Amino acid sequence: MQRSGGGLGASGQPWVLRRVRLTWLSFMLFFILVFFPLIAHYYLTTIDEAGGPEKRIFGPRPGGELCEAKHVQDLCRIRESVSEELLQLEAKRQELNGEITRLNLRIEACKRSIDSAKQDLLQLKNVISQTEHSYKELMAQNQPKLSLPVRLLPDKEDPGLPPPKSARSCRLRSCFDYARCPLTSGFPVYVYDTGSYTWGNYIDPLVRQAFAAAVKSNIYVTDNPNIACLYLVLVGELQESSSSAVPSPSELEKQLKALPYWRSDGHNHVLVHLTRRSMTQNLLYNVSTGRAAVAQSTFLEQQYREGFDLVVSPLVHALSEPNFLEIPPQVPVKRKYLFTFQGERVESLKSSLQEVPPQSFEEEIEGNPPADYDDRIIGTLKAVQDSHLDQVLVEFTCKNPQPSLPTEWALCGEREDRMEVLKVSTFALVISPGDGQLVASAGCGMRLFEAMEVGTIPVVLGDHSTLPYHQFIRWSEAAIIVPKPRVTELHFLLRSLSDNDMLAMRRQGRFLWETYFSTSENVLNTLLASIRTSIQVPAAAIKEEPAHEIPHKAGKLAGTDANLADNGDLDLGPVETEPPYASPRFLRNFTYTAADTYRAWNHAPGPFHLFPHTPLDPVLPSEAKFLGSGTGFRPIGGGTGGSGKEFQAALGGNVPREQFTVVMLTYEREEVLMNSLERLNGLPYLNKVVVVWNSPKPPSDDLLWPDIGLPVVVVRTEKNSLNNRFLPWDAVETEAILSIDDDAHLRHDEIMFGFRVWREARDRIVGFPGRYHAWDINHQSWLYNSNYSCELSMVLTGAAFFHKYYAYLYSYVMPQPIRDMVDEYINCEDIAMNFLVSHITRKPPIKVTSRWTFRCPGCPQALSHDDSHFHERHKCINFFVKVYGYMPLLYTQFRVDSVLFKTRLPHDKTKCFKFI
């Protein structure tokens, strides 16, 4: 028992000890792992706090002392860089979040604005629709509905008009069938072939060929006789060698009645007798012409039907054109002789005229002997010559007198000899026939023609003579008409005329000769124009140059140059872009011939009624002496008044709405052209841009043209010519043209100011670069000068406004030698235009603003930089003076600037009137 218990105790003690040891070991491990670190941390912290911040061993060190350690310097730099980048990124993120928020707000605002604008637009469309509807209703109520009248042609077998009381009583109202010539007919004219009637083969070949050539080029001639308004029959002049083949009056009447469209009485027929000699056959004397009118140079009083028959001028230049270089200049006004006369009085002269009962033309004249005024004229003129007060030349006997009619003064010698005398004569006497019954003679017509051709002022002695086209031409403005009883006062009268009056008469005579008598085409045109004017049928529209467009691709929307668009306080025009609209068409074609016939025929520097009307015919002011193809200019006054703002909004003038067309000539400078077109973006009142592509090489296929919001028409030309700048392109639909070079630099405010000025001076060239001409005393010639001066006489068309009407005159009326010289030198087209406008208006151009230069600074070198450029322009000026016969350019010291030029004022206080 004891051994077992002792054994148990002995055996249990080691187990207990082992548990105690384990417990103690666990406690020690727990103490070491938990309390010892705490005690160590506390101890170490106490040491750092006791030693102060400067003697810390384990705590953080101030001032980045840790980074001073070599092994952590790189890590510190990386940490700092990353920290800065993180701060910057955070700032950017916040900024972008704010921008997104603001843009979202703007998007919402724009959406609301778009919705509001759509509503406003819808309302405006409704208002516009209602306004248009109201306007149409108002127009329908107050204006009648007009349409072109229906043309009623008479039947082919027309019975004719009621016969007149006598052949002498024929007038347009009684012998002309107006039914064949409605206002809208276009005045078709049918011309008989000279081979269709017997005596046509005996007509002078030169006259026949000249007449045929003129007919071929006339715009009114038609091949359809059924629609013709007028029928022309060439009856003479017969050849001198065919006098035996001249039919008798009865035979001639039968042949006339046999014409296919004579219709029993010959109404609407004109029998034309053109003569090249002073002695002409009066074929139609004692011939009953029925209702057919007669147009010839010689008329007896019993034969001539006033207001129905026509006195025409002789056909001197049959197939030849006058040489302008051989015509003497119009200045100096006074020439060697004060007046000249060479002639021999013919009392009785046997001619080839018919002597048939009751009396021939020759017998009718010889039956009335001339008055004794001719003897008094001879004595008076010889007394003036013998007095030696003035140098005159009078000869009353001829070595070689030309055949002439009885009782008239025969021409002396050959035409060349007579012209040499007239070239040194201030006045040329034209003595009417002694027989008062001879109301018109070819001899007087020949003297009148030769005098006006060389610039000699005709002096007609005898107021009973009927001059060519006296119903339409006011001869008193080109010739002096004196009754024969005043021959004793003739010398005093001629001496009393001033130089200005003589120069004006000389210019007017040159115009009449050049326009109506100089060539066979002009003779025929004048004949037809006089008849058309008498029956009040308007002229046909003048042709325009068709613009053959070159296809081109438009690029991106053009921007606006800040330098060009910065106009300060000046209001150029409407902010919104107005759609292009053309100038109003001429509306007086059907009344103009009746209202302004006399003024039109006498003051025109261009052929009125010979050439047709222009499609943009403006209205002729009563005080203007500017006429041409039936056109003139609207009298444009000042603005609408009020403050400057109202004036600018109205653009000045009396035309409320008007635009202009830019015509830009270019040649193989694509980049320069694109820049110039882009500068026109946003220009107010611009209708379109017409680019005249003067190069035979087309534009590049990949060339992108700027989109300026308006049409850009690229016109292909037939040849490289500077005259193409002034062709009347049909693409130009406005009266105002801004001719501008492709390298010209003009601000929008300058262009608009020039446009305002032009609207108040529509008959002038208004532009920017000024030039002048000067007389070289040493070389006795004219010089072109481009130096800056206080006066000018030309404005270059490289940047200038002008009326489209001048494009018609330049291309169709101006003498062809001028255009030929422009093509020869590839120069001087601007000088030619200045000559033309000054010649027509007798006014100088107008320069606006004080800009000295307008060329592109970085563009390729222009032709004007060549030294030969100025030498060619010297030659051009002198050549143009020879063609015109005088120097038409006029000096001026006038320049137009805004009243407040370079002055900045509030917007509503600005005014834009002009001053000198």
From TrEMBL:
Q: Which Gene Ontology cellular component terms are annotated?
A: endoplasmic reticulum membrane; Golgi apparatus
Q: Which SUPFAM superfamilies match?
A: Nucleotide-diphospho-sugar transferases
Sorted alphabetically, which Pfam families does this protein's record hold? Exostosin_GT47, Glyco_transf_64
- Cofactors, names only: Mn(2+)
All copies of domain Exostosin GT47, residue ranges: 185-497
Sorted alphabetically, which InterPro entries does this protein's record hold?
Exostosin (IPR004263), Exostosin_GT47 (IPR040911), GT64_dom (IPR015338), Nucleotide-diphossugar_trans (IPR029044)
- Which pathway is this protein assigned to? Glycan metabolism; heparan sulfate biosynthesis
Coiled-coil ranges from the UniProt annotation: 72-141
One MF term in the entry's GO annotations: glucuronyl-galactosyl-proteoglycan 4-alpha-N-acetylglucosaminyltransferase activity
Arranged from A to Z, the UniProt key words for this protein are: Coiled coil, Disulfide bond, Endoplasmic reticulum, Glycoprotein, Glycosyltransferase, Golgi apparatus, Manganese, Membrane, Metal-binding, Signal-anchor, Transferase, Transmembrane, Transmembrane helix
Cite a single GO BP annotation. Answer: negative regulation of inflammatory response to wounding
**How does this protein sit in the membrane?**
Single-pass type II membrane protein
**Protein origin, superkingdom:** Eukaryota
Q: Which reaction does it catalyse?
A: 3-O-(beta-D-GlcA-(1->3)-beta-D-Gal-(1->3)-beta-D-Gal-(1->4)-beta-D-Xyl)-L-seryl-[protein] + UDP-N-acetyl-alpha-D-glucosamine = 3-O-(alpha-D-GlcNAc-(1->4)-beta-D-GlcA-(1->3)-beta-D-Gal-(1->3)-beta-D-Gal-(1->4)-beta-D-Xyl)-L-seryl-[protein] + UDP + H(+)
* EC number per UniProt: 2.4.1.223
Assembly, per entry:
Homodimer; disulfide-linked. Interacts with REG3A.
Report the protein's function.
Answer: Receptor for REG3A, REG3B and REG3G, induces the activation of downstream signaling pathways such as PI3K-AKT or RAS-RAF-MEK-ERK signaling pathway. Required for the function of REG3A in regulating keratinocyte proliferation and differentiation. Required for the inhibition of skin inflammation mediated by REG3A through the activation of PI3K-AKT-STAT3 pathway. Required for the function of REG3A and REG3G in glucose tolerance in pancreas. Glycosyltransferase which regulates the biosynthesis of heparan sulfate (HS). Initiates HS synthesis by transferring the first N-acetyl-alpha-D-glucosamine (alpha-GlcNAc) residue (GlcNAcT-I activity) to the tetrasaccharide linker (GlcA-Gal-Gal-Xyl-)Ser core linker. May also transfer alpha-GlcNAc residues during HS elongation (GlcNAcT-II activity). Lacks glucuronyl transferase II (GlcAT-II) activity. Important for both skeletal development and hematopoiesis, through the formation of HS proteoglycans (HSPGs).
Into which family does the record put it? Belongs to the glycosyltransferase 47 family.
In Swiss-Prot or TrEMBL terms, this protein is called Exostosin-like 3
Annotated source species:
Takifugu rubripes
